[in-house]
Design goal:
By secondary structure, this protein is an alpha+beta fold. 54% of the residues lie in helices and 27% in strands. It has two domains: 1-38; 40-90. It is built from three helices and four strands. Strands 1, 2, 3 and 4 form a four-stranded antiparallel sheet that branches. Helix 1 crosses helix 2 (32-39). The longest helix has 27 residues, at 2-28. InterPro entries: DUF3970. It holds the Pfam family DUF3970.
Length: 90
């Protein structure tokens, strides 16, 4: 049990280190490749089906849309959610 917790802690620390390193490269402008990775975003859009549809329709005016999922219905709610992957327009 202790080994699993230690392994999980090491994994978390490793991910934090990678994020910090990417952020440093982005801020210093050392790596265009790292910078482009940070500009990509994964969005979860939640709302009524008509609102979500309208919002997704507007995404291409502000971002390059890489992918949009199908709508998923939220439990015990009238709302749906859609997942989108976008990148910043230059």
């Amino acid at each position: 049990m202790v080994d699993k917790l230690m392994a999980k802690q090491r994994l978390i620390e490793h991910r934090i280190e990678l994020l910090e390193r990417s952020k440093t490269h982005y801020l210093e402008g050392k790596s265009a490749r790292s910078a482009s990775k940070l500009i990509n975003a994964k969005l979860r859009i939640t709302g009524r089906p008509d609102e979500v549809k309208d919002f997704v329709r507007e995404l291409p005016t502000h971002f390059h849309v890489l992918q949009v999922s199908q709508p998923y219905k939220n439990r015990n709610s009238q709302y749906v959610r859609v997942y989108a992957e976008v990148t910043k327009k230059s």
